[in-house]
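Re: adenosine-5'-triphosphate structure - here you go.
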Amino acid sequence: MQAPDLVALRPSDDELAQTARLLIRLRWAAGLSILLLTTVARWGLGIELPAKALLALGVVVLGYNAALVAEARRSGRPAATARRTLWGQIALDWLAMVALVHFTGGITSPALIYFVIHVALAGTLLPPRGARGLALLAALIVAALAGLEASGALPHIALPDLGLGGDLHRRGVPALAALFFFSTTALTVAELVARQARRLRQREASIRALNEARAAFTRAATHELRAPVASGLALVRSIEHGYLDELTPSQAVIIERVGVRLDGLRELIDDLLDFAASREASVAHPPLEAVDLGAVLADAIERERLLADARNIAVQTPPRTPIMVRAVDTGLSMIFSNLINNAIKYTPDGGIVTIGHAVEHEAAQVTVTVQDTGIGIPAADLPRIFDEFFRASNAKRSKIVGTGIGLAAVRAMIEHYHGSIALDSVEGEGTCVTVRLPFNRQR
Ligand code: ATP
Ligand code: MG
């Protein structure tokens, strides 16, 4: 197997967007805490501290956090914004940290420990060398701050009311000891976090490569199988239709059976191909794009209608309107072909299949329902209905052919599109499948 490449070891867009969201929440909490604690300490408890400077710091932190939130909303692509502004965010946070430490006692500040949180956060995003670099930078910043305060270049702010009125910053050995413990903690945390993050990413990359190889194999194998089966089927059909000569009744029965078996095999191969495609899609992450669900639905209904007509099943369709969702054309088509095919396949002759859609503007999503008056699914089988290769007991007892792959592939694909699927069914009465997909928000 191929070694996971270096690009795969960088944080994914999802991971970056998650960290960016966490940073935003932490910053709201930090900014508000600074404002609240300073107010309570200064005016509630009468503690002497540089209240104005600390309040200004709180406002600045909340201010640039609000600007970052606005920017992410404006661009509509939080991950891309996070990647672009990551270093800027780190720099701003560190400046805020330095100010907080300075205004709360320099090297004696209890806020010093917060630097370690920042180093740990950076460690989740950076390779170990980068994380070590940041930890060292933190140590240097604190040392510089201590040096400046010791030399008098920067005023030392003592907080005697908090027991931080000593002159540690001017006493060499204790200050060096404090610095030593601070730097070693920061470096160790950086190293541990960055190594673990890298190991997790390596593991993820190899799982991805393995799945991709498996999907590629299934695809290649099924492609190779499809051609001979299709030509075998065509030959059998031509014999059936008297291309060679009139068949004796017993020959006709056997040829028909061969045809049915080959048909089943062809269906199985198609299912396997769909399945491989759904796996590949969830592994290789093809870019999602704006797709007109209304058009895909109309095409899928048209394709499956032949099957329904042959069995006198009425297909009731929704009015055709453009509904833009974020998906991939072929995947979306596979989803609805499978669901409509199931509804027709598991409905006795003369039944009704109803397809509908509803746009929910508030939830920014569209709901598609595929409902039938078919054989339904026994309640005991419902919990496993989306499992690969699972078929309900009544379906297995019937003559209806199937492999139980369709719904598993459909669900994998829908989840890849950040949607959801639900299935309600009563045995002997019918089934209703509900698919929810988010709108395409990008212009
Ligand atoms: P295939 O892989 O060819 O689609 P399948 O239709 O048997 O085979 P799925 O589509 O995964 O497999 O469906 C799984 C099972 O769920 C079916 O075997 C059947 O028991 C049940 N099922 C799915 N849709 C319906 C439906 N509309 N009505 C009744 N049973 C259904
Ligand atoms: Mg099916």
